[in-house]
Specification:
Blueprint: E1 5-11, E2 14-18, H1 38-48, E3 56-60, E4 64-68, E5 72-78, E6 91-93, E7 98-100, E8 109-114, E9 145-147, E10 171-177, H2 188-194, E11 197-199, E12 207-211, E13 227-228, E14 233-235, E15 243-245, E16 252-253, E17 257-261, H3 263-269, E18 277-282, H4 283-291
Length: 292
């Protein structure tokens, strides 16, 4: 097919359409969703001169292949994939040519932006695919033809964002106490913030499941009435192993939240590969260390 579109030739493990999500609808039982690494998605749109809320493709562990139906401009951000010559730097994608992404050596999610944005039909004001609720466009499949819009603003003067790739070794992020810390034994916070955790293969856009550390002991039994959940919440199920909620987090939950990862650091967590170590550092400790 020709025209302002791309045809999907391969999807890799998971490719979805994402934008900034559906904020402000929690009272209706609708989560925000949107890009798991918001910073990387925003960078792609800035480099292309797109609207901040333009939709793009979120690719998990590479493997995406696209064919351009017209002369387009493309950029990739987030996890750097072999095969992309447009990483953090927009490049032409002439009609009939293909973009193929290999698996990234570090990082998990790559954002493929096209000038003009992906113009699939919005659902409740957003083009984001929410895997938990099922809202939004379907997961991208081989053979899909995705329409590309027309940008209204000129291309920016900057043609390269000189950013480091996501790290492949241990990542430290800041965490602060949550509203249900009193549901845990006195040593639980120390255990959470002093021992390394490992991202498990059961992790997804809903959240990171962590293992490898001593389970966090509860001081109170029973379950809470369901209460609001946010991206960055560290919820602790009966196993005592924390779950860090990401973009498709549920709107409510009944397990106690022991802490919250700082908003700026949640993007970094969204780039962690299974098996990668993660350290949750008390916010005050991290700040004191940075000042010294």
């Amino acid at each position: 097919m020709t025209g302002r579109c791309v045809t999907v030739l391969a999807t890799g493990p998971l490719t979805t359409v994402q934008d900034l999500g559906r904020p402000g609808r929690g009272a209706l039982g609708v989560g925000r969703s949107g890009a798991a690494d918001r910073g990387a998605a925003a960078l792609a749109n800035r480099l292309l001169g797109n609207d901040p809320d333009a939709a793009l493709l979120e690719v998990t562990l590479g493997g995406l292949a696209l064919r351009a139906g017209a002369d387009l401009t493309v950029v990739t951000t987030g996890a750097r994939c072999p095969g992309s010559v447009a990483h953090n730097a927009p490049r032409p994608l002439p009609a009939g040519t293909e973009l193929r992404l290999g698996p990234p050596p570090t990082g998990l999610r790559t954002y493929v932006g096209l000038r003009g944005g992906i113009e699939v039909a919005p659902v409740l004001g957003s083009r984001s695919t929410d895997l938990l609720s099922g809202l939004g466009p379907p997961v991208v499949a081989v053979g899909d033809v995705l329409p590309v819009g027309t940008a209204r603003e000129p291309m920016p003067a900057a043609d390269l964002a000189p950013l480091s790739d996501p790290p492949g070794d241990e990542v430290s992020v800041r965490v602060r106490p949550g509203p249900r810390q009193d549901w845990f034994a006195d040593d639980a916070w120390t255990a959470l913030t002093t021992q390394p955790w490992t991202v498990t293969a059961e992790s997804n856009r809903v959240g990171l499941r962590l293992s490898g550390g001593e389970p966090l002991r509860r001081a109170r039994e029973g379950e809470l009435p369901s209460e609001g959940m946010l991206r960055g919440a560290l919820q602790v199920p009966p196993s005592g192993l924390p779950v860090l909620f990401l973009a498709d987090a549920p709107v409510t939950g009944g397990y106690p939240v022991i802490g919250y990862v700082d908003e700026a650091d949640v993007d970094r967590c969204a780039q962690l590969q299974p098996g990668q170590p993660l350290r949750l550092v008390h916010r005050a400790v991290r700040a004191a260390s940075s000042a010294s």
